[in-house]
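Quick start: what a row looks like.
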Amino acid sequence: QVRLVESGGGLVQPGGSLRLSCIASGSIPYAMNWYRQAPTKQRELVATISNGGSTNYADSVKGRFTISRDNAKNSVYLQMVNLRPEDTAVYYCHYRRLIWDNWGQGTQVTVSS
């Protein structure tokens, strides 16, 4: 199974920016997703990118987050700008192949002054 490894999280002030990376150990010719989970909340879908590059976003992040991918590098990215305290969560990279879900270990994003 392909391993997904996220990185790029950290502590940032409101209004700041971060770029998350998800590096796969093999090819990922699938739609790729970024999810997030805040304490005491359910995991939510933040952004999706198809293998061809079509994108979709949760309403809460539209205009602030941008998902992209580099298939040659087996990588997916999430550029986040104008971060808000409510964006604080663990962010996970994910794809589904047939009936199987593949998750990374997550990277913590904390937005606080």
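That is the whole record. The mean pLDDT is 97. Residues 4 and 24 are 5 Å apart (CA to CA).
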